[in-house]
Design a protein that fits this description.
The complex is a heterodimer of chains A (247) and B (544). Chain A is an alpha+beta fold and 247 residues long. In chain A, helix 4 runs antiparallel to helix 5 and helix 4 packs across helix 7. In chain A, 40% of the residues are buried. Chain B is an alpha+beta fold. In chain B, strand 10 and strand 11 form a beta hairpin. In chain B, helix 2 packs across helix 10, helix 4 packs parallel to helix 7 and helix 5 crosses helix 6. The longest helix of chain B is centred in the N-terminal third of the chain and has 20 residues. Classes of the chains: A alpha+beta (247), B alpha+beta (544). The interface between A and B is large, with 93 and 121 residues.
């Protein structure tokens, strides 16, 4: 028996009507209806892009896209999952690439066919400015592509909808990798650290610690904690914590 | 979705009591009270929900009931239905699982000259790794060192970590950051290229390297793209159901299952690397989980059946502030920094019942008690229960815009569902987060079984009894690389004998002899959320 608090609403999964509890996500509504999802479900937390779903509300003509694990059902919603998009992906060696627009155009010549119709942006379930980053890619503004596309979950809907037959999400991935590898300067500190480790600088101390008992380890820990310099901060903070520091 | 009518009465009480609570603490638990609270309510101490394993290498040691159920079940595969004389794929290295550990093992083995087949249950990259927000721990800054990272990791693990594994972890970690950067990961950086690192709880230096709050997503996008660029063979929607052994006692591949056609097929491999993740989706003790859909401990179950010992498998990490509403974010985490910044923990009547700065374990226990025996939890329209985290206090105490400045990510996640944590509290409940133990391995990822490796959350030992934040993202790459490298060398000298699933039949026989009939079969492959199981009810609010 379901608790009284639960109210049922109708939805249509690939045209078939089911009564499901209000407030569920599309994914859980499908499961409540009896589907054991194999394709079309991954992280269940809105980041993997596996569960993108095409839907239309009754009485409207628009087709919408949402992640099934993040989109709440509405009465009389018609839906179908889109678990795979056979999108084009160029194969390349990241090491041998140059970070410039001719390298992009060589791997994805269709980029220049963009019609600026904005269908990609309207379809993106993450509400990214897809057309904006495609335009930036056409201008060779790599940094802007990185900024506008960094939250892409690679669901492929932009490629499925694009009338010019681009794969915007794969083009953006190429550019982000180019930027990360070839544009951001290497960290001088990391290079030093790698040399120290390879040179065995910490070897003796680590061997001592491996033999140390619990009390000695705790003593060291107290010492390190006392010199840590700033209050511990937890992971997963808001974006503007480092916005001013990021490249 | 905003808070519906069902929440209004409780929300009004929270509003009404907020001014009175402002600046008030709740008496901190003394040691005796804390011990008793933990022993009665904390999942780790509820022995009624753990039990001894009665067969196999760890016979006599305990594990969560949900995992024991699977370890004490016969295989879902009847050995007779598989014709091992017909091999569908032959490869040097078979990698099972495509999170950070699996993909790294595959890339590394390929780089070292081995032929590689990567099999995965869902899509390439679907894993817990992709969900990691925070960062990857590595001693890259001048004020830090692998020595300090070593000490922090051991203290976090309650001294139970295997020292050689931790040594490998801290020494390799900076090389992993270098490797990921060389593949084109866009780490948060300073203008001169230096890494912008954070200091998560339990660490003594800034050493967590992030990519905004989508670190794992960026890693997996880049690594999966590299797998495609290196043209590594990938079998998606093909979970492994059992390992294949040979008559020389070594692992010789696996039987895979095609989810689409529901056919079994055989992969013969000179080395097999399990990177199958943890057990979150078994919902140990009925808890929600922050884990992805496929986290059903398949690798642990298969390796155990083949004779590999497990280590610390009874230690499970719970996070006190998992999201209980809205439904879409159930089980996902809210940063502990929200409490540090002033948010109190409050029940359905708007009353405090625990200090907001109690440790993770005590806070989880207090919330479970409040929702259970005391009946002071908030019931949601989908049957879940939770406790308020009174986030509006953050701006009241710290001044306007404090919440937005500190927690823009949390704010935008909740705003999507018309919940505004600047002005409305957040509903939380403890969530299962991480399997601290796993298959016992050495520094090269080798298990007790020749030619069988394990890496990442599937393996146990490096984190002792309790993993530190940001140490899992580095673990998967360090041991993924080590496994891949070692396996690629090893296969040069491996000769495979006659293939066999005798261990599967022998395990079934040992269950019969011990009179064990779980009524189930394993591995689970996917959790079953059909029909009423789709609703997030809570079954674990009782005390011991």
């Amino acid at each position: 028996m379901l608790p009284d608090i639960i109210k049922m609403i109708p939805i249509y999964i690939m045209g078939r009507k089911y009564e499901v509890p209000q407030g569920l996500t599309i994914l859980k509504a499908m499961e409540f209806a009896g589907y054991r999802v194999k394709r079309g479900c991954g992280c269940r937390g809105g980041v993997c892009g596996a569960c993108v779903t095409l839907y239309r509300r009754k009485g409207t003509y628009q087709l919408n896209f949402g992640l099934a694990c993040q989109t709440v059902i509405e009465p009389d919603m018609y839906l179908m999952q889109l678990p795979f998009v056979p999108a084009n992906k160029a194969v390349y060696s990241i090491k041998n690439l140059r970070a410039n627009d001719s390298a992009i155009a060589k791997l994805y010549p269709e980029l220049m066919r963009c019609l600026q119709c904005n269908t990609c942006t309207k379809a993106c379930p993450m509400e990214l400015d897809v057309m904006g980053y495609v335009a930036a890619a056409m201008r060779g503004d790599l940094k802007n592509v990185v900024e506008l596309s960094i939250e892409c979950v690679m669901c492929g809907v932009c490629a499925a909808r694009c009338p010019a037959e681009l794969s915007p999400f794969n083009i953006a991935l190429l550019i982000r990798r180019m930027y990360g590898k070839h544009v951001i300067p290497p960290s001088p500190q990391l290079g030093e650290r790698l040399k120290e480790i390879s040179g065995g600088e910490f070897e003796e101390q680590l061997q001592e610690l491996k033999r140390a008992d619990e009390a000695e380890i705790l003593e060291k820990f107290k010492e390190f904690q006392a010199t840590k310099g700033e209050a511990a901060i937890e992971l997963g903070r808001g974006k503007d914590d480092y916005a001013s520091n990021a490249h | 979705m905003a808070y519906s009518a069902e929440f209004q009465e409780s929300l009004e009480k929270i509003e009404a009591s907020r001014n009175g609570r402002l600046g008030q603490g709740f008496p901190k638990l003394n040691l005796a009270d804390k011990t008793s609270l933990l022993e009665t309510y904390h999942p780790d101490f509820r022995m009624a929900e753990k039990r001894e394993i009665r067969v196999g290498p760890n016979r006599g040691s305990v594990a969560p009931n949900e995992l024991v159920d699977l370890l004490e079940s016969p295989s879902r595969l009847a050995p007779e239905v598989v014709d091992l004389t017909k091999v569908d794929f032959r490869t040097d290295v078979l990698v099972i699982g495509s999170g950070g550990g699996g993909v790294t093992a595959a890339l590394t083995a390929k780089e070292c000259g081995a032929e590689v087949l990567l099999a995965t249950k869902l899509r390439l990259g679907d894993s817990n790794t992709i969900m990691a927000e925070g960062g990857i721990a590595a001693a890259t800054l001048p004020e830090d060192s692998p020595v300090i990272h070593y000490v922090d990791t051991i203290v976090g693990g309650r001294g139970k970590n295997i020292p050689e594994l931790v040594e490998a972890l801290v020494n390799d970690a900076p090389f992993i950051v270098e490797w990921l950067t060389s593949l084109g990961v866009n780490f948060d950086r300073l203008p001169d290229g230096a890494y912008y690192a954070h200091m998560p709880a339990g660490h003594s230096r800034r050493r967590s390297h992030s990519v905004k709050d989508i670190t794992g997503l960026e890693f997996m996008r880049v690594l999966c793209d590299e797998v495609r660029n290196r043209e590594i063979d990938v079998l998606e929607f093909s979970p492994a159901v059992e390992l294949i052994m040979d008559d020389r006692g070594q692992c010789a591949g696996a039987v895979l299952f095609n989810f689409d056609t529901e056919q079994y097929f055989c992969v013969e491999a000179k080395a097999t690397i399990l990177a199958t993740g943890g057990m979150g989706r078994l919902h140990p003790q009925g808890f929600p989980t922050s884990n992805h859909y496929g986290a059903t401990a398949d690798g642990v179950v298969m390796a155990y059946r083949a004779g590999a010992a497990l280590l610390y498998i009874d230690f499970v990490q719970y996070h006190p502030t998992g999201i209980a509403w809205p439904e879409q974010m159930l089980g996902l985490l809210v940063s502990e920094a929200v409490r540090a910044q002033g948010a109190q923990v409050v029940n359905v009547d708007g009353d405090m019942f625990v200090d907001r700065l109690e440790t993770r374990d005590a806070l989880s226990a207090a919330i479970i008690r409040e929702c259970g025996e005391r009946g002071k939890g908030v019931l949601t329209p989908t049957g879940m229960v939770g406790i308020w985290l009174d986030t509006p206090l953050i701006d009241v105490m710290g001044g306007e815009r404090t919440f937005l400045r500190r927690f823009a990510g949390i704010h935008s996640r909740f705003k999507k569902y018309d919940i505004d944590p600047i002005h409305e509290p957040i509903l939380i409940y403890p969530t299962q987060h991480y399997q601290n133990g796993g298959i016992r391995v050495n520094v090269d990822g080798e298990t007790d079984i020749p030619s069988l490796y394990a890496s990442g959350e599937a393996a146990g030992g490096v984190h002792g009894h309790n993993r530190l934040g940001a140490n899992s993202l580095v673990d998967i790459f360090v041991f993924g690389r080590r496994s891949g490298m070692h396996a690629a060398q090893k296969v040069k000298g491996v000769k495979i004998g006659r293939l066999s699933l005798d261990h599967v039949s022998a395990y079934r026989d040992s269950l019969r002899e011990a009179n064990i009939n779980s009524g189930k079969s394993s591995p689970m492959l996917l959790p079953d959320y059909r029909f009423e199981k789709a609703l997030s009810t809570v079954q674990h609010t009782k005390g011991r």
